[in-house]
Automatic annotation (TrEMBL):
EC number: 3.6.1.31
A GO cellular component entry from the record: cytoplasm
Catalytic reaction equation(s): 1-(5-phospho-beta-D-ribosyl)-ATP + H2O = 1-(5-phospho-beta-D-ribosyl)-5'-AMP + diphosphate + H(+)
Protein's name in the database: Phosphoribosyl-ATP pyrophosphatase
Homology family: Belongs to the PRA-PH family.
UniProt cross-references to Gene3D superfamilies, sorted A to Z: MazG-like
A Pfam family annotated for this UniProt entry: PRA-PH
CDD domains, per the entry: NTP-PPase_HisIE_like
Organism of origin: Thiohalomonas denitrificans
NCBIfam families (UniProt xref): histidine_hisI, PRK00400.1-3, PRK00400.1-5
Length: 105
């Protein structure tokens, strides 16, 4: 896994025991799944708006927000970001069109 994602994943794990008044991530965990999902939804919408707007810096910034909040969601649910990367790894060399055709058979 990318070094940054791995380090972030470790920090997100450590934040499970942190003080919500001192950590944004601990605060999100303490607010619960619905609040985390609300942030994921907001960041997804902001990413779409940025992409439509075409400002490259904004697109990168909003996508980072979306990835970050998606990682918080996975961790909150006891899943590892590594599992998503492994799924992408599994799909290597598998055409999306072929996969769809097999699924629809
Ligand atoms: N990568 C991030 C990261 N990306 C975005 N954010 C926060 O996510 C929030 C994004 O929400 P919005 O843009 O909607 O801004 P907002 O209005 O302030 O947010 P809300 O009040 O609506 O929640 C902001 O508060 C950002 O600071 C992040 N907060 C933390 N991290 C990483 O997580 C680590 C742990 O953070 P703490 O738990 O705060 O120590 C940090 O060291 C970083 O590596």
């Amino acid at each position: 896994m990318s070094d940054v994602l791995e380090k972030l994943s470790q920090v997100l794990e450590e934040r499970k025991g942190a003080d919500p008044d001192k950590s944004y991530v601990a605060k999100l965990y303490s607010k619960g799944l619905d609040s985390i999902l609300k942030k994921v939804g907001e960041e997804a919408t902001e990413t779409v708006i940025a992409a439509k707007g075409g400002n490259r810096e904004e697109i990168v910034y909003e996508t980072a927000d979306l990835w970050f909040h998606s990682m918080v969601m996975l961790k909150h649910l006891g899943l590892e970001p590594e599992q998503v990367l492994m799924e992408l790894q599994r799909r290597f060399g598998l055409s999306g069109l072929e996969e769809k055709e097999n699924r629809e058979k």
